[in-house]
Design goal:
Layout (H helix, E strand, L loop, with lengths): L3 H4 L4 H21 L4 H16 L6 H16 L7 H21 L27 E5 L5 H13 L4 E4 L9 H7 L2 H4 L2 E3 L20 E10 L9 E5 L8 H8 L4 E3 L11 H16 L1
Parallel strand pairs: 1-2, 1-5, 2-3, 4-5, 4-6
Helix pairs in contact: 2-5, 3-4, 4-5, 6-7, 6-10
Length: 282
């Protein structure tokens, strides 16, 4: 930890970056159970006190910093309960993100700290027969978010088209929060018979339905116990070949919307559909 008098001598941008790093490291230790409150709380509190006196911050930011300071001052070093740690973490996290913004850094998913640690595959309770085919999902962020939703709602296995983003991409893995490591998945090879790609032969004997517009309202869709849900690309939706396969099988599932945009991010729509499907299993 850098002594406060040395921090005070640094140019403001460098000082804020150093403090942001200090709070990030403290949050990591808190999540890992290595936070020494008797030593760290006084230092963090004194450092935060100097930030509340920084007149370059807007009033609303200084107010938020003061609230975080008040929260840290509430707890004694011997307080070790879960509720106490959660409140301390919220205060530290608030300061960290304020400083990231103040130093011109746009907060991204890799700035988030996952307190959950590694996931235990033995704690998974998937619904047998609940499977999904991701068709040409291009964004690693969306692929990661869809892995996380799929694991949370009991998907047994994910199939990926050849043009899906890689689940092992750093941004996908970060967004998935460990779910790419415990959720079974397979990238299907689809033979070219000329563009566009054909629907995978590996799924041709399985009941399928597509998450797409123009289908049965989610409130009335007869969710099956054993099937593959097809989810199409962000830009183009489900391909004509996959739609044809769905239309001759279980049909299309649609989520009604009521705004001017009339569409949802693919990972958001996916999560809504999975929750409804999982509720039918439960």
């Amino acid at each position: 930890m850098i002594p406060l008098h040395k921090l005070a001598q640094l140019p403001r941008p460098q000082r804020l970056r150093k403090i942001a790093k200090t709070f990030a490291e403290a949050e990591l230790r808190l999540c890992a159970g290595n936070f020494v409150a008797s030593r760290e709380l006084p230092y963090l509190t004194d450092t935060l006190q100097t930030l509340t006196q920084d007149g370059a911050f807007p009033p609303t930011v200084r107010q938020a910093l003061s609230a975080a300071l008040g929260s840290l001052r509430t707890y004694a070093p011997e307080d070790t309960g879960d509720e106490c740690r959660a409140s301390i973490r919220r205060a530290i996290n608030t300061v960290r993100h304020i400083l990231l913004t103040a130093t011109g850094k746009q907060t991204a998913d890799w700035d988030f700290i996952d307190a959950g640690g590694s996931l235990d595959p033995g704690k998974r309770h998937p619904f047998p027969g609940m499977r999904v085919y991701l068709e040409d999902i291009r964004s690693p962020f969306n692929v990661g978010a869809m892995f996380r939703a799929a694991e949370s709602f009991g998907v047994e296995k994910l199939y990926l088209s050849p043009l899906c983003a890689d689940p092992n991409h750093p941004r996908a893995k970060r967004t998935a929060m460990g779910c790419t490591d415990i959720l079974p998945w397979e990238r299907l090879a689809v033979e070219f018979t000329g563009l566009p790609l054909q629907f995978p032969q590996a799924l041709s004997t399985t009941p399928v339905f597509a998450l797409e517009t123009g289908g049965i309202d989610i409130a009335h869709f007869p969710f099956p116990k054993h099937a593959v849900m097809i989810v199409g690309s962000e830009e183009l939706g489900v391909s004509p070949q996959a739609l044809a396969a769905a239309d001759t099988s279980l049909g299309r599932l649609s989520i009604p919307t009521y705004g001017a945009k009339g569409s949802l991010n693919v990972s958001v729509a996916f999560g809504i559909a999975l929750q409804a499907w999982a509720a039918a299993y439960a």
